[in-house]
Design brief:
The structure holds two protein chains of two kinds. In chain A, helix 8 links the parallel strand 6 and strand 7. Chain A is built from ten helices and nine strands. In chain A, the strands form two sheets. Chain A has a six-stranded mixed β-sheet with strand order 5-6-7-3-8-9, with helices on both faces. In chain A, strands 2-1-4 form a three-stranded antiparallel β-sheet. By secondary structure, chain A is α/β, with parallel strands linked by helices. Chain B is mostly helical. Chain B is 69% helix and 3% strand. Chain B is built from 16 helices and two strands. The interface between A and B is large, with 48 and 49 residues.
């Protein structure tokens, strides 16, 4: 009897998992990213030195000690959720985003993103400095996978959102860094697919522009897109995300409703600051 | 929000009571429906596998023919001997079909799987080679057995290069599947076109003459060459030396520029690679695209220089695009290798610059093939770039159609290199962002 019971139980669990999986759009399972600490590239000099050391029975150089930027990170994000990722510097937030967007490959573990996604990470990397802002809009959009003919109807919106109408036919190398970032952000935000990864993008431009960005994000969320933010600006998070992931030294420390996670996080930050002051 | 909590408990009297708590609505995400499923593509892929095996056999056959009829030590029977009867192709098709039929019967007995794993495909290829040899013995008794031996060796080597090796490199990479990668690349063609145009524009954007340079530069270069070779350095040959030299230099230019730009293509855009996800091979194609555009404008200069010496474009020029295509395959294949290898092994650029110099002198660019001693002539016959360049020279200067028997080998090597290079590139693509 117990065998039948177990069978039925397993079947039901599988079915339930399928239902849940149909909803999940971002799945990370045991994601680990390992780096070596120092110069990893084998060179003749290194090899020769190591050979001598081994011959003399001395310990070999420790340049290949691994460092886990991410360690066994597991989570699932469902369609339409907007989730914040917080953590201290070097806790692996950006690495996680790069792995999810397919730029980096995890050392072990599995990542699955269902549907088209794009990452707002390096907003100024895709610009050709010699070319005008207008041409760069098309190029940047194409880098994100949007063909030029889809840009034509929304070109004016992009220019107006970036607030660079007077300089749109100026080469990008003459832009201020804020203008470049605004333009990059504007292009990205107008052509976003259903799943969006955002890295500190809200720190673009001045306070007024940031306000506009937050409005835009809220609109994207209302449209039912799946958003994943990485942010240091904790004050913005409660309004945008109902769920927060807390990465600490490459591990997922907490995953839950934003207010609870933020409270814990701020508590830790206060304690660390207090230690830093020597109290 | 949708979730199903289930719990099942055994109740004492042997029944199972199942409670399903809170089943919400079930909704399939649109994207999972839109993605083409693997099963839908299976029959097509199986056909592709069969065609690949057939192409390997044909390629090996063509190389065997070329070895036997064009390389001095390949001649076992008289030169008039017909090495490539049409019946051979019928034998090949029969052999591949029979081998696949056998594989299908064997597989069906155990487990119905329709596409074959690489090592199994290779096994089927080996069977097909054996069947082809047997078929040739029975149906084409006139065919040289030496040629069939060349064919067998070449086919096995090609099989290892095209089936076994790409299946083995970096199994974990998601981009390993060349078929899927090509579909993604096809979707990225607006990016390629736009980027190429902007790159060309930005190359000359700061200059006074602007885009005019793209025509002026090759003209000026050819003017310098013409001056040097017609006035100062008078080399005896049946055609003016500048004419003899320039058309070979043109093709070498494509190869050279492709190799060096391709090698740096990934390294020059590291910042972008680390921040934006796009098909990386676009960067390599960008490099070859620029080289092709330069080739096109240099071709105009070539026509002008040749016309000054009384040689006009002739009807044989229709072969020129095909010849450039062969050279393109060779170059692009090597570019895919070098662009990813130069990140993995940083010594590659130095090595390549030496090898390219050597190759320049081993290729008949500055001298005709007749100038090489008979003993060393096989070096030229083994160099696919040299063979293509010679064919271009025949077409452009002497208005003779290219000898197909010298081109089989570059075609097969070019396509093989292209496939291997692309597979290697895709297998290593995901490591690029870590290799700064």
């Amino acid at each position: 009897m117990t065998a039948i019971t177990q069978k039925i139980q397993a079947g039901i669990r599988e079915e339930a998992a399928q239902h849940r999986a149909a909803e999940a759009v971002i799945i990370a399972e045991q994601v680990t990213k390992q780096y070596v600490r120092a110069e990893a590239r084998a060179s003749l000099r290194h090899e020769a030195l190591n050979l001598v050391r081994r011959a003399l029975r001395r310990p070999t150089e420790l340049h290949a000690q691994p460092f886990n930027a991410l360690q066994n990170v597991t989570f699932t994000i469902n369609r339409g959720e907007s989730v914040a990722v917080i953590g201290r510097n070097g806790s692996g937030k950006t690495t996680l985003l790069r792995i999810l967007s397919g730029i980096l490959k995890p050392s072990s573990g599995r990542v699955e993103v269902r549907g088209r996604s794009s990452a707002l990470i390096g907003l100024s990397a895709g610009f050709l400095p010699e070319m005008t802002g207008r041409k760069n809009i098309y190029l940047n959009a194409a880098l994100f996978g949007t063909p030029p003919r889809q840009i034509d109807p929304i070109l004016d919106d992009i220019i107006d959102f970036a607030e660079i109408r007077p300089f749109i036919d100026t080469p990008v190398k003459n832009y201020s860094s804020g203008m470049v970032l605004r333009l990059g952000f504007s292009v990205a935000v107008h052509i976003l697919p259903d799943i969006v990864f955002i890295d500190e993008a809200l720190s673009v431009g001045d306070a007024a522009f940031q306000e506009k960005c937050v409005d835009r994000m809220a609109r994207l969320k209302a449209e039912g897109r799946t958003l994943l933010f990485v942010s240091h600006d904790l004050s913005r998070i409660p309004g945008l995300c109902e769920r927060t992931l807390w990465l600490h030294k490459g591990r997922l420390r907490m995953d839950g409703p934003t207010p609870i996670v933020l409270e814990e996080y701020e508590d830790l930050m206060r304690r660390i600051a207090a230690e830093g002051r020597g109290e | 929000m949708c979730y199903a909590e289930t719990c099942a408990r055994p109740v004492p009297d042997g029944f199972v009571k199942i409670e399903i708590l809170a089943i919400g609505h079930i909704e399939m995400p649109m994207s999972s429906l839109a993605l083409p499923t693997l099963t839908a593509r299976l029959p097509k892929r199986r056909l592709a596998q069969m065609v690949a095996n057939l192409l390997i056999l044909i390629g090996a056959h063509l190389i065997a023919v070329q070895i036997r009829l064009r390389i001095p030590w390949g001649l076992a029977l008289g030169p008039e001997y017909d090495g490539q009867p049409i019946g051979m192709y019928v034998v090949f098709i029969g052999a591949v079909d029979l081998a696949y039929g056998m594989a299908w019967i064997v597989a069906r007995a155990k487990r119905p799987r329709r596409i074959l794993a690489p090592h199994k495909q290779f096994r089927v290829l080996i069977v097909a080679i054996g069947l082809a040899w047997a078929g040739a013995l029975v149906f084409l008794p006139d065919l040289s057995q030496l040629q069939m031996a060349y064919f067998t060796v070449t086919a096995v080597v090609l099989g290892v290069c095209v089936i076994v090796w790409p299946g083995r490199i970096n199994r974990g990479a998601t981009g390993r599947d060349v078929y899927t990668a090509l579909i993604r690349l096809w979707a990225a063609r607006p990016l390629l076109g736009l980027w190429l145009r902007l790159n060309i524009q930005s190359r000359y954007s700061q200059t006074v003459l602007g885009i005019l340079w793209i025509v002026l530069l090759p003209l000026a270069t050819s003017g310098v060459l013409a001056l040097a070779f017609s006035q100062f350095l008078r080399v005896k040959s049946d055609v003016p030396f500048i004419v003899f030299f320039f058309c070979a230099l043109l093709m070498w230019g494509l190869f050279n520029q492709g190799i060096f730009n391709g090698m740096g293509a990934i390294r020059a855009r590291m910042e972008l690679i680390r921040q934006v996800a796009f098909p990386r091979e676009v960067l390599v194609l960008l490099a070859i695209g620029e080289a092709l555009i330069d080739l096109f404008f240099t071709l105009i200069a070539l026509i002008i220089v040749n016309a000054l010496h009384g040689i006009w474009p002739n009807a044989q020029w229709v072969y020129l695009p095909a010849l450039i295509g062969i050279l393109l395959c060779l170059t692009l294949g090597l570019m895919f290798f070098l662009s990813s290898l130069s990140l993995l092994v940083r010594d590659i650029p130095q090595l390549v610059s030496v090898v390219m110099q050597l190759l320049f002198y081993l290729t008949p660019i500055l001298y005709p093939v007749d100038a090489i001693p008979e003993r060393f002539r096989f070096i030229v016959l083994l160099n696919p770039v040299g063979l293509v360049i010679q064919a271009v020279r025949e077409v452009v200067i002497y208005a003779r159609p290219p000898d197909p028997l010298t081109l089989y080998y570059p075609i097969v090597v070019g396509l093989t290199l292209l496939y291997m290079g692309y597979a290697f590139f895709k297998a290593n693509e995901e490591r690029f962002a870590d290799l700064t």
